[in-house]
Amino acid sequence: MCRPQHLGASLFLLGLLLGFATACSRHPSDDKMAEDIQSKIANDAETRDSQVTAAAKGGKVTLSGKVKTPAAQKKIEKIAAEEPGQIAVDDQTTIDPELPAVPEPTSPMVAVAPRVEKPKPQPIVVPSGTVLTVRISQALSSKGSQTGQTFLATLAQSISVEGRPALPSGATVSGTVVNAKAKGKLKGQAELALTLKRISVAGHDYEIETNVLSNTSKGKGKRTAVTTGGGAAGGALIGGIAGGGKGAGIGALIGAGAGFIGGAATGNKQIEIPAESALSFTLSAPLSLPPRSD
After folding, report:
1. Helix-strand-coil percent breakdown of the chain, rounded to 5?
2. In principle, which of 25, 65, 164, 258 could form an S-S bond with 52, CB 3.0–4.6 Å?
3. Domains (ranges, CATH) in the chain?
């Protein structure tokens, strides 16, 4: 059986051993201290140019090597003195102003994917040679119309370019009477010539160039239709004959190859085209439209 005094001494010694072991476990190792000091010197802007080695043994830190300035030397001593666990610092460094500069550390390169820009919408170009079939909104004639007069019409058939809508059906079109001449009682001939000048699309007006549709009447049963500025040979009589009433013959659109005014000579050999008659004009120059979002 152990004596009480021996048991107390044993417990005291055991406590000392446990405390020492705990203290040792909390005390950083010499290698860890040296590594931390070396890392701090290399990452400090004032000391990174130094060529210093830190070593530790039993908590004592020894600094050796070269520094560039006295300020850098003091800063390194401070770094070592502030290291947890050190018990003494022995600075054996020397000053060498000729030490080469060390470049600042750079961030790792991050690959950035190039920005892919969406292609910009291209304008819609209605090519020259496209046929525009329109319905005129007012009656025109060699006797009642005046040269230079503006007339209105609406696009009877929509136009698409490469599958994209370009000119919608019902778009407002304006034209000009190029020539209007009434037939005289004794001599002369009736003449009527028309062309288109503008078209309105989505609230914007665009100038257009088309061929000139011309019709001439010389006498009873004799009428000559001609076209200038484009168009094809051949023609069609559209609209109503004199006395046939407004809108007579509506729906008889001129085909894509036609390029003539259709009309009728009255008894006194005047040329008349009733309101709502359909006429086909051919673009003589391309029409450029801005890209549409729909």
Report:
1. 15, 35, 50
2. 65
3. 4-95 (1.10.287), 124-289 (2.40.128.260)
